[in-house]
Amino acid sequence: MTIYQMFKIVVLSSVISVVLAALTGCGGGGSPVGQGPGLGPGDNNALLVGQYTFSLTGQTVPEGAVVAIAGSFTADGNGHLGGVQDVNSKLGVNTGKFGGTYSLGTDGRGNAVLGIQAGCANWQFTMVSHTHGLLTCLNTSMTASGTIDLQDPSSLSVAALKGNYVFSFSGLGLPANAQSGAGLAVMAGDWTMDGNGNITRGEMDVNDLSGIQQDIPVSGTYSVGANGRGIATLNSSFTTQKFAFYIANRGDLKFVETDAQPVVSGEVLAQASGPFTPLTLKGQLAFTLSGVDSNNVPITVGGIFSSDGNGGISNGVLDSNDGGTVLLGSTLTGNYALSTTGRGLANLTSSPALQLAFYPAANGTIELVDIGSGLGVVGMARGQIGLPFSVASTSGNYAPSFTGTNLISSGAEEDITGQLIADGAGNLNGVLDVNNFGSIFQKNPISGSSYTMATNGRGTAVLNTASGTFDMQTYQIGPGTILFLESDQGRVIVGIAEKQQF
């Protein structure tokens, strides 16, 4: 997964209740009760023009079943789009075309209404730039989050996919045994694509209810057809898995599994350049992880730490939210090592303790998956740029994306996009577009809100809205990117905010 997708974990928790409601929409468009979002005036439709890939993962309402979607579409810059998608949901696997209309406002927030039965018929999204956006499904029958990325036409072939790649997938795993159901499965690894349709030299770490498998070999095949849609088969001791994927560019592929079970999804990224040594991880890093604890309760973990380039980890601070039990400011130390293939192992002394396999990507993302016996979590780390930080270093307009579990009203998944405006003096405003497991709050104003930022990049944010207050720990990666972890008892959520560039 890219930095934008690291936070998407489908938390397989029980559904307590469903509240169906809708508020007013983006740009003056309305949302009738029980329906999707209304379209706004489209003042900035030209920002979305060209051929894009997209992905969404989430849950159906009210069943709470896993749904995973990937596809591509072409937008004409005048409010019309059409494309093709693969959907894996309670209705089975569906591949089909779709068309629809979209509206994009001057703040970069947009919505789309698609004429489809399978998948998400109503999108809410915020564009970071012409090439990239953050996406939420704003249906009363489904909630999900994901990304939109402009396609590179020169990458849409088998031959273009050549080199070493890393990946991180999550979703519904295998049954633990004949008497029990499946839980969350998280996995990360690397492989080589030879440009001729073969996947070789692969390895992966799997943390699933059926057991933990470390550094298992992976091989397979792949092909690419029209619209940059590909098919891949992965073979390992975990199981044989079949995927559809869509190419954004040579270094970014969106994967969705097309099996009945397991059903995992994520992104495949070009691997960082070797040779791999302890120096590969040197510097100060920020990270977040999310998934479930040993009792299948949703948990999120985040923090910062320093790596000395010689196998040592120090000066770390760790925050966690385990089903609403919040522990902030724990000390984090540890050690790490890397193999020549680019697979790393890190043992972190913290609360909770973490044993991580990690895989560095070329875009600076480091894929993380816990392979200890206590947690089933996956996420990312990234080196911090621009230290020291302050409230002034976070000023600007940001596109946020938050996802996780709302413990208060639904007990199930909540997905959020919108716009955050930081004034550089500790004050926040903007709007949030929320899908709380079918309860839709579109253009939800942020008021009386604030943020802090310490020199090491760890800070706080309080977002006050009509649908609730979000108390957040934040971790600044650089001038344009901030990670989030909810630090109150009501939600177990992680997320990201990216500075808008248009």
Q: What does this entry look like structurally?
A:
There is one protein chain. The chain is mostly beta strands and 502 residues long. The protein has strands at residues 49-60, 66-76, 80-89, 92-104, 109-114, 122-129, 132-138, 142-150, 162-172, 184-194, 198-208, 211-224, 229-235, 240-249, 252-257, 263-270, 283-293, 298-307, 312-322, 325-338, 344-349, 354-360, 365-370, 375-383, 396-406, 412-422, 427-436, 439-453, 458-465, 468-478, 481-486, 491-499. Strands 1-2-3-4-5-6-7-8 form an 8-stranded antiparallel barrel. Residues 1-36 have low confidence and may be disordered.
What's the gist of this structure?
This protein is an all-beta fold. It has strands at residues 49-60, 66-76, 80-89, 92-104, 109-114, 122-129, 132-138, 142-150, 162-172, 184-194, 198-208, 211-224, 229-235, 240-249, 252-257, 263-270, 283-293, 298-307, 312-322, 325-338, 344-349, 354-360, 365-370, 375-383, 396-406, 412-422, 427-436, 439-453, 458-465, 468-478, 481-486, 491-499. The relative contact order is 0.16.
